[in-house]
Amino acid sequence: MPQYVEVSVNVSQISKTYHYHLPEEFADRIQPGTLVVVPFGKQTVQGVVLSRVAVPEVAETRPVESILDEQPVLTALQMALAKWIAEAALAPLGACVGLMIPTGLSQRADILVQHSKELPEALAELSAIQKHIMALLEKRGELRGRQLDAAFRHVNWRSSLSALKRAGYVHTQCILPPPRVSPKYARTVQIAVQPDKINILGSKLSPRPAVHERRMKVLELLAKEPLPTEFSWVYAQTGSKYADLKVLAEAGLIVFNETEIWRDPLEEIEMPPADPPQLTNDQQSVWSVIQKALKRSGQAEFVKPFLLHGVTGSGKTEIYLRAVAETLKAGKQAIVLVPEISLTPQTVRRFMARFPNQVGIIHSRLSEGERYDTWRRARQGDLSVIIGARSALFVPLPDPGLIVLDECHHESYDQSDSLPYYHAVETAEAYGRLAGAVVLLGSATPRITQYYQAQHGAWQLIRLPERILAHRDTIKKHAKRLHLDLALKPSEGELVSLEMPKTSVIDMRQELKEGNRSVFSRELKGALEEVLTAQQQAILFLNRKGSATYVFCRDCGYVLKCPRDEKPLTYHSSRKALMCHTCGYKRQMPKKCPECGGKQIRQLGTGTERLEKQVHELFPNARTLRWDADTTGKKGAHDLILSHFSAHRADILIGTQMLAKGLDLPLVTLVGVVLAEVGLNLPDFRAAERSFQVLTQVAGRAGRSPLGGRVILQTYQPENYVIQVAAGHDFKAFYKQELSHRRNLGYPPFSRLVKLEYRHQDAARVEAAAKSMAQELRLWIDEAGLIQTDFIGPVPCFFTRLHGLYRWQIILRGPDPRQILHGRQLRDWIVEVDPPNIL
User: Fold this and answer.
1) Is residue 536 a contact partner of residue 644, using CB atoms and an 8 Å limit?
2) Pairing mode of beta strands 62-63, 66-67
3) In this structure, how many other beta carbons lie within 10 angstroms of the beta carbon of residue 741?
4) Which of the 8 DSSP states describes residue 789?
5) In this model, does residue 101 exceed pLDDT 90?
6) What torsion do the CA atoms of 25, 29, 35, 39 make, to the nearest 10 degrees?
7) Which residues, other chains included, contact 299 with Cβ-Cβ below 8 Å and sequence gap of 6+?
């Protein structure tokens, strides 16, 4: 009797599942979640078995060809979650299933391109892209599609290749690359005799005394090692070589093996165990609510997600740690998401100290092997706590009982650069519902929509309104190290609370009127002098990159822009080049204006490089560090910069939005924000919210120790309400005013949005497609009778070109505009449900 399975194929834009039959040899080896290879059209592709089926949907089924992993790669919960994401995000199911499979194991079908025997006689007939393809094939031989993708970034080379194929210059074939990752094995050696017999059996190892002694050292070392030992360790400890080991093995004294080696990115981090500190009254109130929920989790009643609204430095992380401990005590596992890779080192250390040998880490900066091994260890139950970026949500834990999202407002929780376009917060909420797990969301500056849900009962709102200075013992250590005479007043228990740092708003227009043309206001300059004199630390925050905001011609006003994106190019002095921060386009600084030929090419604005240079001009002896995208490109760079600054190897840390996160730096007594209004004037309904969040978060880096702190916001728009409420650390005032704006404009939380975006190299084609779609949308809305649903557009996007492609968009708005699009094939359109921005 044949057996059949339902398979989700790993092919872009495929939402449907397909039925296959099982060859007899696979009948007992395949179960839901198994990763297999199946035929699909003319291709061979990967797929995941979702279920067994009694009767296939087609009479003629094709066979499953092979199994890639004997253990299921998806749990039942993950398969249910993938289906939820596909429905909620209007995304292809195959792409959603692909989220759950680690990079390197998941492979998509590709094409292999080869020269035909006859090369073109007249290269002049070919386009520039076609000539480039032929040159690459001539130089490198056969190429895969992904290699051509790398060679022609953001360029549509496939149509050019099709023309070459039709002309007979190349031929192609479909292939399925094998997985790039697999378990890692190392050659190991182990003692094969009883330790007390080593001296007798090893008495004739070599007639040469030096060689004999070396080989005896090997035996003595292995006699002390109960487990197989890597060759390299034996060589390092004894000075031996492979020839020595070979002689010992032939004599039957040792045996060779191959032992699997786990690629663990946390292997070299050693943290002494840490005990939980005493809680404040506020923390205790919050913890008692969460603890009760954790004890109820997994029961029939769904526990609503918690929004922990706590000011910066209020002790949210300690609540997370206790929630994880309670979860582990119940025999379940926990996922802890952090928004930025820059936050991961600090967070991981705190959790490793509390949960030794139970923590794994997942983020994009790990090697494929490290991610694969962490994924496998979690799958087999060897790791109980997974920490990482949004992708850590999809690690196959056996029984997740807690999902934590720290800084839940952050945009890195929104995947908006590739399919599927999903939101980690909403996905975690769905996962918690499916698993019966508690979902705990923390932020000092939650999104308007998140706080609205908590206020109106969809989530549970809990608060930590006061900042905690530190445990009393910690304060005493700081005071002793800094030679401070601190008289600590009695307070609740053993903890000391702290006011938010004092904030000044500096009107840079007035500074200009009074003759100060420096990037530093007089108050900020004086505050930096005080910090350096007192041997403390400062943070200078700039929401820009590079050395200059843009480069322009003073004669005609021409601004040098990226030819692909039409965004102003930024000058980087370290590279002596102009760069586009969107697509990576790079060129040299021109000597003459491309527009008028004038020689008055100048840089306008300030970037992190230039700001660092100006700091050195003012304070030659100041030790500076820069923390931005340019300085953190290499693996481990975030941890290195943070460790240097924490150890006071630098006085001033200069950086971009990475600085606005939950860093705990006790010597920082000053935060200076150079351009506080950056981003406020973008045509996006969340522009004010993002500006308030980043200003509040970066201000929270100051004054987290006995030294106190202050914040200086420099701005050309001091009257803007966002600047004013951020200076007062007043979330409630911001929420009230911003909610009123949203209500008047009909934006979330009073509606939901779906963004439809069309991209193409041909501007006219993009405009025509957008206008045609608008006509169809009007018909669909009328047919459905959705009187509360409308749309904005079609219009060019704010960033009209991206990666060389023109962009137009339509914004659907209503109670649930997704229902208009369900079941419709929107080929070539990018569809984002609840988009994080409409730029």
Assistant:
1) no
2) unpaired
3) 14
4) -
5) yes
6) 20
7) 436
Helix locations, 534-636, DSSP H: 608-618
Q: Check: CB of residue 659 under 8 Å from CB of residue 653.
A: yes
- Sheet containing strand 43-53, edge to edge, reads 62-63, 18-21, 4-9, 43-53, 35-40, 66-67
Dist. CA 519–CA 715, nearest whole Å = 11
- CA atoms within a 13 Å half-sphere pointing along the CA-CB vector of 656: 19
Residue 273, SS3? coil
SS3 752: strand
DSSP label at residue 300: S
Positive or negative CA dihedral for 451, 457, 463, 465? Answer: positive
Task: Please give the helix or strand (H or E) that residue 567 lies within, else none.
Answer: none
Element (H, E) at 305: none
CA 702 from centroid of its chain's CA atoms: 25
Distance of CA 9 to the CA centre of its chain: 26
Cβ burial, residue 1 (10 Å; 0-12/13-18/19+): exposed
3-state secondary structure of 350: helix
Q: Which residues are 495's β-sheet partners?
A: 471
What is the chain's percent helix, strand, coil content, to nearest 5?
35, 25, 40
Q: Measured between alpha carbons, how far is 777 from 164 in angstroms, rounded to an integer? A: 38
- 711-734 b/e (C-beta count within 10 Å ≥ 16 → b): bbbbbeebebebbebbbebebeeb
pLDDT tens digit sequence for 322-341: 999 999 999 999 999 998 76
634-669 confidence digits (pLDDT tens): 777 777 888 788 888 999 999 877 666 556 677 888
Q: Is the four-CA dihedral 557, 562, 563, 566 of positive or negative sign?
A: negative
Tokens standing for residue 327: 């979860």
Checking if the pLDDT of 375 tops 60, the result is yes
**Which residue is it, tokens 């997370």?**
320
Which of 499, 497, 452, 451 shows the shortest CA–CA distance to 471?
A: 497
Amino acid at 393: L
User: What is the length of the chain?
Assistant: 839
What is the model's pLDDT at position 589? 86
Cis peptide before 749 (omega within 30 of 0): yes
Asked whether the beta carbons of 312 and 467 are under 8 A apart, the reply is yes
Under 8 Å CB-to-CB from 48, ≥6 apart: which residues? 7, 8, 10, 33, 34, 35, 36, 73, 74, 79, 97, 101
Cβ atoms within 10 Å of 237's Cβ, excluding its own: 15
User: Which range, of 216-230, 513-527, 539-553, averages the lowest pLDDT?
Assistant: 539-553
The Cα 76–Cα 100 span in angstroms is 12
